[in-house]
């Protein structure tokens, strides 16, 4: 069975997955990298950067689910680039020549362009479709494996509201951003459809998992 | 040293400490008692109700700090009664003849009335003063012990914004209320003044403590 999953979306205590004022120089706006410092400390991150060391506990364990069993990613236009990226014909995402996806990646955007093949197995596809339809395309490309909904918060909220997510991992970071894009807005009663577990880490982060009830 | 503390304020994942539509029949609005069910399961709560049984783990341990070392409580008008309580001369709070405070309790309100002495050591005082001034009055009544800021969320936010809180215990309950009164609004950067720890419980609740840095 091919699931639809969200992995390692980091949010502040007040629920913001990205800050205010996103730009090419500040992909997460005024949040900077503060939502992701817990990741940089792990072995998983160090390996990805080709460096030794890093922590091997709860944080690392959750991060290792990022690629496991994933056959495709579906992301929102706001994750692929800063506001206005579609006006730059050379924009190929934030991640350099070898993006960390290594699967087909579908970008939901009104600004379609031909697919871009990157190093390491990542191909960017640009589609203009409603959530359920886009998910079908990603599912087909995933070849029986799971589809990761990669964010940002707006697309995750849309997929949650449409009850299209089977499993979600959120990392709550103990900071208060005060402003930005909320992951929770408009999702009253979401707990009725999911089994929710919380696991706090010595790093200060709390991992929250949502598993669709009865799955 | 007499500290200013917040104990066991329960909030939803999306940060609401009380729901929408508070009334005499629904003190927490559409949230009902869903924010407090974790408390009802503990030994601490059972003892308070004169019943045997209850859990004795992390949740219970945090709850036992409620009265420990507290000499007075300061609460907002919205905690003392439903909207319009000041128009009822017989209103003496939600808690019956023997309220669970057992200390002087200061109610911040524009509608002053004479003190009300209740059973069990609780006396309600009604004061109309800015936060720091009200805190002075409660501190004096606390006789060297700590002052608890009892809520609701609006007064806690005010005291946090004024950096008047030394220690705070928040319990995050895994539900999404969607609407209500937020505990976090307008507190960007609060983490700079506090050491923050998170401890998840088997009940699903995550306890978050804020301790003023350097305390």
From TrEMBL, chains A, B:
One of its GO terms (molecular function) is 5-amino-6-(5-phosphoribosylamino)uracil reductase activity. Pfam families: RibD_C. Residues 9-187 form the Bacterial bifunctional deaminase-reductase C-terminal domain. InterPro entries: DHFR-like_dom_sf, RibDG_C, Riboflavin_Biosynth_HTPR. Gene3D superfamilies: Dihydrofolate Reductase, subunit A. Keywords: DNA-binding. It comes from the Bacteria. GO terms for biological process: riboflavin biosynthetic process. This is DNA-binding protein. It comes from Rhizocola hellebori.
């Amino acid at each position: 069975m091919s699931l639809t999953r969200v992995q390692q979306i980091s949010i502040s205590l007040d629920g913001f997955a990205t800050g205010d004022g996103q730009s090419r120089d500040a992909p997460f706006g005024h949040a900077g990298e503060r939502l992701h410092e817990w990741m940089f400390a792990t072995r998983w991150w160090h390996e990805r950067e080709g460096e030794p060391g890093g922590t091997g506990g709860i944080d690392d364990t959750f991060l290792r689910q990022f690629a496991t069993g994933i056959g495709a990613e579906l992301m929102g236009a706001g994750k692929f680039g800063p506001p206005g990226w579609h006006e730059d014909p050379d924009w190929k995402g934030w991640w350099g020549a070898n993006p960390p996806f290594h699967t087909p990646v579908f970008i939901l955007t009104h600004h379609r362009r031909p697919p871009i093949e990157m190093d390491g197995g990542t191909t960017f596809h640009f589609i203009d479709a409603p959530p359920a339809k886009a998910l079908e395309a990603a599912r087909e490309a995933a070849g029986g494996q799971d589809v990761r909904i990669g964010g940002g918060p707006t697309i995750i909220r849309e997929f949650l509201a449409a009850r299209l997510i089977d499993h979600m991992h959120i990392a709550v970071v103990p900071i208060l951003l005060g402003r930005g894009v909320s992951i929770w807005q408009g999702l009253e009663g979401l707990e009725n459809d999911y089994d929710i577990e919380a696991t706090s880490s010595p790093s200060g982060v709390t991992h929250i998992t949502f598993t669709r009830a009865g799955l």
